[in-house]
Amino acid sequence: MVTAALNSRARRDEIVRLAMTTGLATVEELAGTFDVTASTIRRDLALLTSEGRLTRTLGGAIAPNAHPEASLRQRTGEAFEAKRGIARWAAAQIRPGETVLLDAGSTVGALAHELRSATALTVATTGLTALQELADVDAVHVECLGGTLRHLSQGFVGPLAEAALERMTFDRAFLGADGVTPDGGICEADLQQTRLKELMARHADQVYVLAHAGKLLRQPFHAWAPLSRKWTLVTDHQADSAVIAAFAANGVEVVIVDPDGHRIN
Asked: Which residue ranges does the record assign to the HTH deoR-type domain (predicted)?
C-alpha cells in the first residue's frame, strides 16, 4: 500500500505511472493502494482525464496509448536471449511422432526455428513465422490453420482458423502472450486472438505459455484468454521470485530456463 501521506499531486502522478505500467487501473484497486476513498480516486481520474493524462474506462482508467501493440518485427529483437532459451527448452520437450500446435508470435517463432532439425513431426500453426521457418523442412508435416491475417502479429485469426481447430487435437500447444497472469490467463490486444488461444488450449493434452520475464503480470490490453486446464509457464531466469511464487500458488507449473535452454528450477 502506498502511504496516505502523499499529497494530491503526487498521488495523481503515481496513478498515471501505475496505469502506464499495468495498462489498466480500477477505482477499487487504486483506492486500496493509496488508502483513500473511491470518491477521491474518481475525482483524481476525472482531473487526469481532463488533462489528457488518462482515458476513462468502465470502473477505472488506462493511460492513453500506454501499451500500443508492437508489430512482430518490433518484438523479434526484444529479449532475444531469453526467447532463445525458452524456445530451446520447449523444443526439447517434443517427441518424434507428435502433433503440436504453434501459436503466432516471436517466441513461438523461435521455437519453430529450433524444430527445423526435427523428424517425424506434425506441426499445425497460425503463425507466418512458423510457416516460413518450416516451409522447406521435409521431415516436418505442416498444417496451416488459415483464417484472416493480422498484419501486426503476422498470425491468422477468425472463424476459419477456429473451424480448423475444432477438427484437430494436439499432443502439445505452445502459446505466446503480450501479458500473462496467474488467474486471468493470456492478455492480448484483440478478442479474436484470445478466442483462438482459448480454443488452442482446449484442444491440446499439454499447454505451454512461452513468456519472457517482462511479460509476467502485465495487463496491457483488455482481451483475455482464460486457461481453464492445467498449463505450464515457461519463462527466463530474470523472472522475479515473488512473481513466480504467485503463479505457482495458483496451480501453474513454472519452468525457468537459462539462455541455453537449460531448466534452472
From this structure: 8-63
Average pLDDT over residues 193-202: 94
CB 173 within 8 A of CB 203: yes
Beta carbons of 215 and 175 less than 8 angstroms apart? no
**Do the Cβ atoms of 107 and 87 come closer than 8 Å?**
yes
Which ranges in the chain belong to alpha helices (H)?
A: 8-22, 27-34, 38-50, 72-76, 80-93, 106-114, 128-134, 159-165, 191-202, 241-249
pTM above 0.90, yes or no: no
The owner of cell 520437450 is 93
C-alpha cell at position 11: 498521488
Give the phi and the psi of residue 5 in degrees, each rounded to 5.
-75, -10
Task: Tell me which of 1.10.3720.10, 3.10.290.10, 1.10.10.10, 3.40.630.30 is the CATH number of domain 8-62.
Answer: 1.10.10.10
Q: What cell was used for 196? A: 483462438
For residues 98 and 78, the model is more confident at 98
Question: For 72-257, which CATH class?
Answer: alpha beta
Q: How far apart are the first and last CA of the chain?
A: 31
User: For residues 200 and 101, is the Cβ–Cβ distance under 8 A?
Assistant: yes
Mean pLDDT of the chain: 88
Rounded-to-integer distance, Cα 201 and Cα 175, Å: 8
The three cell numbers of residue 6 are: 502523499
- Alpha-carbon distance of 219 to 45, in angstroms, equals 19
Q: What does the pLDDT average to over 73-96?
A: 86
Query: Cβ(106)–Cβ(112) under 8 Å?
Result: no
Look up residue 181 and give its three cell numbers.
497472469
**Residues facing residue 263 across a β-bridge:** 257
